[in-house]
Hints:
mainly alpha
Amino acid sequence: MKALALGLIAASLVSVVGAEARPNGRSRIDAAQVLAPLERAATDCFAETVMANPGAMNHARAGEWYKAAGVIGFLCRPEVDAMTAAHDQLFGPGSGARYFKGGYAKHLDRALAERLQPFLERKAVASAEPPVDHAAAGDATEH
């Protein structure tokens, strides 16, 4: 259902761009306006699924963002397909795959680093237990 919705959105946005083409070949709607929501949907999917997968989070902790996304990439296939299909319609067949592997991959690395960094930082955990006095515990066992 999610894939169908993304596909319909991409198709309708691209058709609006095509329908409003000017004689000089430029469209009234910038391609970035069409691609931005699709890129955002793909990036949101990658961020959410990386956080939910321990293996992907291990790669993220090591700063291996592309590997982290690769672990769960198939789960974001509908979002990626919608983005690459729209890119193909705007810029020609095959351009979406090239964009996904090039420009978008670089964008994804930065976006995942920004979004997930707060979750990767080690935080001190508060404990309700009083601290153990090791010297006193050692004295108690000697007697």
